Amino acid sequence: MLHTQGYAAMNAGAALEPFRFDRRAVGAYDVLINIRYCGICHSDIHQARDEWGGSIFPMVPGHEIVGDILQVGADVKKYHVGDNVGVGCFVDSCRTCGSCRDGLEQYCESGMILTYNGLDQQGAPTYGGYSKQIVVDENYLLRIPSSLSLEGTAPLLCAGITTYSPLKHWGVGKGHRLGVVGLGGLGHMAVKIGKALGAEVTVFSRFDAKRSDAERLGATEYVATEKEGSMAGLSGKFDFMIDTVSAAHDYNTYLDVLKRDGTMILVGAPSEPLPVLAFNLVLKRRRMVGSLIGGIRETQEMLDFCAEHNIPSDVEVIPIQQVNEAYERVLKGDVRYRFVIDLKSLEG
Ligand code: NAP
Ligand code: ZN
Ligand code: ZN
Q1: Is 157 helix (H, G, I), strand (E, B) or coil?
Q2: Where exactly are the structural domains of the chain?
Q3: Which residue, judged by its Cα, is nearest atom 36 of ligand 1?
Q4: Is the pTM of this model over 0.70?
Q5: Which of 16, 200, 206, 294 is the most buried (most CB within 10 A)?
Q6: How is domain 160-290 classified at the CATH fold level?
Q7: Nearest ligand to residue 293 Cα
Q8: Ligand approaching nearest to the C-alpha of 63
């Protein structure tokens, strides 16, 4: 066993606090990672507050992990001590089902093993990246491109892949109009990646406050959705919409702006069921689809794509002692555009 420390929520909705715990010893195919940075995803907040149900406590959140390798197991082939690596939302899967064989481990038919808030092969709880060290099988690691900063890369492990995967899957590119709903962690990566894929991007954000940021990130148009009449003239204009909103809101407004055969991609995950008017799909043969993060192979492809296009995440680096305050700011939409914890701040 390996003794380590981090920050945990001891029960649903509790403030995060210092927590000491054990990780498994480094096995033959494992590497031990010294965690340098970990992004704060809105999913961390949903789960720490048990908004999706079934949360396991104590919970050490964090699935946007980057660090360097301290130790490798005897049979590790692909990585060496000192390499910079990343860990995303899952750390294992069955490896034999159709989804795993297709490199789509996130859809593993036995269920992927989440980086935190999951149970490992031995039934022990998994703990995430708000901590000093983590032990992970080499097959579930990503290689960090040397041209990107470590802190700017951490959020790519979830926010980056969650937006890249569906945009690639549905063929978003040159000649397409893409709308991005919600300019937070996922939203700002959707703008950068959508633009890099060649699409013309419009941001749908509630207020005017993020207008100049949206332009800087690569959007050509901006709609402040809370403003009276802001959606006028947009009906039937978009090929794709990607909805990254974390809270209950009206999907129908955004279905209506799609063209015939347009696609609305849901990645935001509010916990409540939300009504969809059938006619918004039926009348123009539109479709509404969901997407969950991405597999290991595609996550590596996304990291290399972001390095090639020089599109790290825009981050605000914080010490771990400010994690609870950061959660409150995320909930207020007050983040430009991802908080990233510097794990050096964890003493001892
Ligand atoms: P985030 O940084 O908090 O961004 C969410 C954005 O949604 C906010 O910046 C805000 O944008 C908008 N928003 C918030 N509350 C709203 C409300 N009441 N009405 C309308 N808009 C609102 O969160 P994130 O980390 O990007 O995550 C977004 C969602 O995706 C979360 O539900 C998360 O759990 C989910 N997620 C899904 C996957 C997946 O695999 N599908 C992966 C990661 C995360 P504006 O200020 O611009 O309006
Ligand atoms: Zn996430
Ligand atoms: Zn599987």
Answers
A1: helix
A2: 2-158+294-347, 160-290
A3: 268
A4: yes
A5: 294
A6: Rossmann fold (3.40.50)
A7: 1
A8: 2
